Input
Amino acid sequence: MFKTFLAGTLSGMALVVALRGAEPGASVVLIYNARMRESKNVANHYATRRNVPASQIIGLDLPTGETMSRTEYRQQLQQPLLKFLQQNKLFVYPPSAAGSEQKDLKPIAASIRYAVLAYGVPLRIAEDPSLADPGAEGIREVLRRNGAAVDSELSTLPVLNLSVPLAGPQANPLYGCLHPSWLDPTNGLLLVARLDGPSAAVARALVDKALEAETNGLWGRGYFDLRGLTNGSYKEGDDWIRAAADITRRFGYEAVVDDKPETFPVAFPMSQIALYAGWYDLNASGPFTRPKVEFMPGAFAYHLQSFSAHTLRSTTQNWCGPLLAAGATATMGSIDEPFLDGTPNIGVFFACWLPGGYTFGEAAHASQRVLSWQTTVIGDPLYRPFGKTPREQHDALAQRHSKLLEWADLRYADESLVLGLKPGEVVQYLLRPDVPQDSAVLAEKLADLYLMEGQDELSIKAFRRALKLGPTPQQRVRLTLSLGNRLVASAHEEDALALYDDFLKKCPDYSDAMDLYTKMETLATKLGQTRRAERYAREIAKLTGGK
Output
C-alpha cells in the first residue's frame, strides 16, 4: 500500500517527464576541427553513439588552440556553418531572406535544434578593442567587451542580420521558458554544447556516461555549497544554489547543504556524487582535489566562479577541466568575467532538468539570462536522465536485479518524507522483503530514520551494519564519523575509541586525522586511560610538526 501510494504521487509529479520521448541524433548538427584528428575521432564517436546522420556532420578549418579571433570566428566557423545549415535545409529562411535588409530574421523551419562542438573546436573568441561596433557606446562600460564564449555566440546563429552590437551580452528571450519545445532556432536560439575537457578521452567519455545514466538512471547524492550570505548583491548566488538544493530534496534525492563562507574542506566525506553546485574558489578545491572523486555515472557538477572555464585543458586550473577529469559528465562555466547576472541561474537549471525533464542542453540554455556572452556548456546536450517516471525507473531496475535498485528505494524513502510520512512508516517500508537488505546505502538511511525517532541504540546498530555492507571509501568515512558521534552521545566512549582506532589503521592517509586524534585523546583522558591519551598526544605532535 505504501509503495503504491508513493509511486502514484511521484508519477503525477513527473507527468511532464513521461509525456516526452527521447530526442534523436537527427536533431543535432555536429562540428569538429578538420585540423585535428582527435577532434574528428570525438565527433565520430558521438555520431555513432547518438546516431547523428553523416549529412549533419561538418569539419571546419579552425585554429587548434582554445582561442580564436573575431575574424576567424566569423570566416571559419560562423559563416561556413550557417551556409552548411542552409544548403542542407537544416535551417530554412523565407525566400526574401537573400539580400534582405530586414533585421533579426529567423528561420521559418529548422530540422535541428542542437549544435555539438567536438574537442578541438576553440573555446573563446578573443577580445578585439580595435573592432568597429556601432551602438556599443550605449552599453555600460564595464560590459563593453566583444570577447565571448564560442558556444554562447553560436547560440544566436539562427538570427540573420543581428542588429545588436557585438559588445556586451544579449538578453535571452527564452530564459526560464516553461515549454522546452520553444527552445528552437525558429525562436532565434540554437542549443550549443561541447564535448570537451582536458583530453580527447575525457571528451569522448561524456556521451558514454550520459547514455549509461539514461539507461540506468542518475543516482547518488546532491551536495550544495553556499556562502551563508544574508544580504548584499551576491546573495542572489546563494539563493540560486539554495533553490537547487530544495528542488533536489523535493525530487527525492539526498541533499547536503553547507552554508559556511568557505567551500567544502578536503576531508568532507563527499560520497556517491550525482549533483553538485557551489561557489566561490578560483581553482577546484576540497574533496575535488582528492585522487579519487566519487562521481556517479552521469553526474552534473557546477561551480560558480568568474573564470571556471577559462581553460578546459587543465586538470588543476579553474573548475570545469578538473571536474571533467575527475569524472563529471556535464558542467557549465565562464570563460571570462561574466558578472553574477551573466551566469546561469542554477536554480532554474535544476527546476528544468529534474522535475521538468528537459534535456541537458535545454535546461542549460533556459537557465541563462543572457547570450553572446561568457558561458560555455560542456556535455552531451541530448542527455536526459530524468526522462522516465520514478515508477518506470524502479521497475526497470527491479526487473534486471540491478544493484542500483537501492537508490530507487532510497528515493522512495526520501520522497515519502517530503510528502509528510513519518520516519517510522518509512522504516517499515525499508524493512520489507522486496527492498534490498544488503545495501549500505539503505542501512545508512535506516540509521538516520532511527535517529530522527530518538532510537539511538537502533541507529547505532544500523550504522554498524552499514559499515559491514561494503560502503564506498567516502561513505565509510561518513558512517564512521556518524557512528562515532552516536556512540559518544550514548555514553559508549570505549566503543568510539575502538571505532576510531580501527578506522585510522585501515585509512592511514585520512586527511583529517588530526581531528580524530584530538577526539581520541579527549575520550581516553575522560576514561582515565593515561597511556592511551599520551599515545594520541604524540600522534598529534607529529602531525603539527612537534616531537
In short: The radius of gyration is 26 Å. Confidence is low (pLDDT under 50) at residues 1-19. Residues 70-87 form the longest helix (18 residues). The first strand starts at residue 28 and ends at 33.
